[in-house]
Amino acid sequence: MPMYWKSFWVSIVFLLSAYVFWRWCLGYIVPFVFGALLAMLLQPIASWFESHHVPRSGAALMSLAVGGGGVLIVLGSVVSLLVAELLQLSHRLPQYLSRGEHLIQHNRDWEAQLVRQLHVRPRLVNTSLTSLYHISEGLVRSLMVLLLKVPNLGLVVIIGTVTAYFLIRDHRWISTQVLRALPPSIRPQYQAAKYDIVNGTLGFLKAEALLVFLTAAITAAGLLLLGIRYGVLVGIAAGLLDLVPYLGPTAILGPWILGAWFLGQHVLALKLLLVLLAVALARQILEPRLVGSNMGVHPLVAVIALYIGIRLFGASGVIIGPITALMLRVVHRTQQAIS
């Protein structure tokens, strides 16, 4: 069989296998995937401890402790900023509530103004408001479902942490056993494939974390520079929502812009629109470059992988798509090396 057609059919079989795996098998091995990712992130720290004559088991424990401590420090800093913003919000909450009551009392006047500005029928406005209510209700239900899954999340974290400990402690032995289990024709390419997978995955995670940080930082800095309150609170929320496709700061700033505009606060609406445009422009420019360069694939391939992943798997496709593209690249390199 010619090399071209062989590569073609290998790609088709790999993509079908990847789809089956991500769709139906991932749920059973999530703790171990989490543990493997955690081990990849903490492996350099464990190697540093080991280079300073710390036993391998101790180095594994200390790397987990350092990683957990770092996460706690970051979370503590974020929580302290959030508490400061929330305290400021709590002092102004009675004022905001009185404004809300005033708006409710004059709801008919506001609806009539909205109808005049949009040139739509009142029935359409009522339908839109009802739809907005149902969407809000659905979001609340989704949040409650997520909270019900917290015990399962704790189990995943515990099992994943234990898995990471053994992977860090025994990674040389595990690597040797995997190498022995491989066919002799593939063994010479094992180290190169392992290097590509580990570095590509870590690069992708680093790129996603950097994008979330940039979204939060640009949103918060833009709001604060324009003199808008609660910039840190909104920025952190926008960064977290940025993990969900098509949401990010738009889910927060979009309704805020519309509400400010229809309430006559046009200057505030334009300021918020500037912040939203700045975040969107930065993400459109940086996301393909960051994801592509850190994974070692072309930015266009990264964009295609992101799009297909989102269409097939929803929000989780943000991770599944690029990781599958990385794995396909490794498969092609290994096949070429064997040939």
Secondary structure layout plus pairing:
Elements: H1 3-51, H2 56-105, H3 107-118, H4 122-148, H5 150-169, H6 171-181, H7 190-225, H8 231-241, H9 250-262, H10 266-295, H11 299-313, H12 317-338
Shape: globular
What order do the helices and strands follow? Answer: HHHHHHHHHHHH
Structural class: mainly alpha
Quaternary organization: single chain
- Main β-sheet, in a few words? none
What amount of the residues lies in strands?
Answer: under 5%
Number of strands: 0
Average per-residue pLDDT, rounded, comes to 75
Radius of gyration, in Å, reads: 25 Å
Terminus-to-terminus distance: 12 Å
**Helix percentage range:** over 70%
Number of helices: 12
Low-pLDDT windows of residues: none
Report on this structure.
The chain has 339 residues and is mainly alpha-helical. It has a domain at 184-339. It is 87% helix and 0% strand. The protein is built from twelve helices and no strands. It has helices spanning 3-51, 56-105, 107-118, 122-148, 150-169, 171-181, 190-225, 231-241, 250-262, 266-295, 299-313, 317-338. The radius of gyration is 25 Å and the shape is globular.
